[in-house]
From TrEMBL:
Residues 220-295 form the FdhE C-terminal domain. Necessary for formate dehydrogenase activity. Keywords: Cytoplasm. Its main location: cytoplasm. GO terms for biological process: protein maturation. This is Protein FdhE homolog. It is found in: Cytoplasm. One of its GO terms (cellular component) is cytosol. GO terms for molecular function: ferric iron binding.
């Protein structure tokens, strides 16, 4: 476990064509783009009210990412496979502080049914919140009341996404192997994005917690890794901006967002706007291998 101040920056390659295994996010920019995208996608959505709740929440995340006090980076596992998965109870007090700020900002902006949930969450003990936060980060979503998960994840996301870029600068990217879970914080991806820089058609998985992206070879299952029996699905034509890659081996699937021609796309917002694709895949017996932070409130407990 190490503190960043004592660790020199990792040496990077100078070649512009070199593929980066890991890409750090600018959390403020991500949250701003997400809020904009939620606003524009809400117009055509049967879930317009839910999009608006998410937009308000993400707008508060953008403000907190800019203004909040994040203290100093706590001990993290420099030599561990997922260095930011090891932040312990000290980090809890920081993200719980962000949660209280986020909920106080949101409270006057929501209707009474959601306000009741927000007030109830504000009254939970730090121990209870720590336990729920840990369960969510470990992927045990059903251990947390669904009505609270959206907000807890949003607060943790602001904290983890703030520190991820600084930790990435100090990681040796040559040691980052292709993997299903985020190499920085250990959480699930939301979906994958297909980019054309530095080479055409590269795929990166986008983290649901710290917003980092990591390279993952296309036509390889992002859950079990096999590369023999993959199928591509889309709602309309083969040039659709959102497509699904499903695996005939483990029956998992991951969405692919072709962001090059549509820079306003956002993984979480566009995933939410294409739930009909999920319904079709679910009906065929496939299950998502991803986690959308904006969909946690829709999970059943
Ligand atoms: Zn992450
Ligand atoms: Zn698979």
């Amino acid at each position: 476990m190490s503190h960043t101040a004592e660790i020199p920056l990792a040496q990077g390659s100078e070649s512009p064509l070199e593929l980066k295994p890991l890409k750090a996010a600018d959390p403020q920019a991500v949250y701003h783009r997400r809020a904009q995208r939620l606003l524009s996608l809400a117009k055509d959505s049967p879930l317009a009210d839910y999009f608006e709740l998410c937009r308000r929440l993400v707008s508060i995340q953008a403000r907190l990412a800019q203004e909040a006090d994040f203290g100093k980076l706590l001990a993290w596992g420099k030599d561990e496979a997922t260095p930011l998965s090891l932040l312990g109870s000290e980090a809890d007090s920081y993200w719980q502080g962000l949660l209280q700020q986020l909920l106080s900002d949101l409270l006057p902006q929501v209707d009474e049914s959601i306000a009741r949930v927000v007030r109830l969450l504000m009254q939970q003990s730090p121990e209870q919140l720590s336990s729920w936060g840990r369960s969510l980060r470990q992927g045990h979503v059903s251990e947390v009341p669904a009505r609270f998960s959206l907000f807890i994840w949003a607060a943790m996301g602001v904290y983890w996404s703030h520190w991820a870029p600084m930790v990435i600068k100090r990681m040796d990217q040559r040691k980052v192997a292709q993997q299903s879970m985020c190499p920085v914080c250990g959480c699930h991806p939301v979906a994958s994005v297909i980019v054309d820089q530095p080479r055409a058609g590269l795929r990166y998985l986008h983290c649901s917690l710290c917003e980092s992206e990591w390279h993952y070879i296309r036509a390889h299952c992002t859950s079990c890794g096999q590369d023999k029996e993959m199928t591509i699905w889309s709602l309309d034509d083969a040039k659709a901006q959102v497509r699904i890659e499903s695996c005939d081996e483990c029956h998992g699937y991951t969405k692919m967002m072709f962001v090059e021609n549509s820079p306003s796309m956002d993984v979480a917002a566009d995933d939410l706007a294409t739930l009909m694709l999920d319904s079709e895949l679910n009906a065929k017996g496939f299950g998502a291998t991803t986690l959308n932070p904006l969909l946690l409130a829709h999970e059943t407990t």
